[in-house]
Amino acid sequence: MTISADFTSRWFDLERLRDESFVSRIEFRRECVSTNDFALSLPADNQSPTLVLTDSQTGGRGRGSNQWWARDGSLTFSLRLMPATFSVSHEKWPLASLTTAIAVADTLAEFAPDQTIGLKWPNDVFLNGRKICGILVEPPKGSTSELVVGVGLNVANSLSDAPPEVRTLATSIFDETDNDFSPSDVLLKFLQRFETLIRDLGNDSLNLNERWQQQCTLTGHQISLESGDHHIIGLCRGISDAGAINVETNGIVRPWYGGIVRRIEEREH
After folding, report:
1. What pTM was computed for the model?
2. Taking the CA of residue 167 as centre, how many other CA atoms within 13 Å lie in the half-sphere pointing to its CB?
């Protein structure tokens, strides 16, 4: 197990993360534009899973053209792994983002136990109605054996100085609990939980549909979904066993495997 670091981290105990989690290699950079981009650029080797970690991410990517707003004390990292190591078949790769979101939700339950945690298909986690985590899963170019799982989670950073459009939509553990938790402790808890869940996914013991349903923020609500040339409005009926979002329109339920989803807020009477 190796650690490569260009600086002594302010936030993370790299040795503890290596010794108490399933990662085989840690690549730490004091500053990084995007941990996902860094992870994607690594050569394939036998040291998977690799954790790419930074104290400061300056240009984190979200889905599409979205960017992740991160400041000092936020947790931004990527895992480069071989799903087959955990018996996760290629057919289950689309479930990696949903599994990661559940691992984040379970981690938040440890550090913010009295708060309301929500899951928004396919890659967002909410705390008390505001976004606290974004997830981006993508394979290295040309690879059929590896995935990169990127996570941005607001931990010890306050969003009080964020742009107004961000501040009204997002939050952090610190903002919701007033507790200054260590990003290193939160990351370690996530890694331990993620390993359990990804193995459960591989051996078919993770009832993803039922587990997701417990905290889904969209089920039973009107939503809009944009996917390619399609723009539909319908009622969310949860997710399918294959990880698609089920949308009911005109009495017919159809699964959608990708797209941008927005909840349509009910008008006040």
Report:
1. 0.92
2. 7
